């Protein structure tokens, strides 16, 4: 597992777990970031917010928030 903040642009992953902080977890759930949700990282410049797509919607997440979301990266085909 890795954090959402560590993935490069155009990465696909599945949310594995959310932070234990109830307030942040509730916010992420309200945005559609639930365990098992498919996520595509659209923008991650290494600083500033991440732009991700989940359930067809684009979300901007602060780097600290994204660092607390544990994900399972999807494996890439051998030809890529």
Class derived from helix and strand content: alpha+beta
Number of strands: 6
Overall structural domain count: 1
Helix and strand element order: EEHEEEHE
Helix content: 10-25%
Q: What's the Cα radius of gyration?
A: 12 Å
Number of helices: 2
> What's the architecture in CATH terms?
Roll
The biggest beta sheet, please? 6 strands, antiparallel
Output the strand order for the largest sheet: 1-6-2-3-4-5
Oligomer: single chain
Briefly note the CATH topology name.
Answer: SH3 type barrels
The CATH class, by name, is Mainly Beta
Low-confidence stretches: none
Polypeptide structure, described:
- The chain is an alpha+beta fold and 80 residues long.
- It has a single domain (2-73), classed as SH3 type barrels.
- The chain is built from two helices and six strands, in the order E-E-H-E-E-E-H-E.
- It has a six-stranded antiparallel sheet with strand order 1-6-2-3-4-5.
- Strand 4 and strand 5 (57-61) form a beta hairpin.
- The longest helix is centred in the first third of the chain and has 9 residues, at 22-30.
- It is globular.
- The chain starts with a strand and ends in a 7-residue tail after the last strand.
- The model has no long low-confidence stretch (mean pLDDT 91).
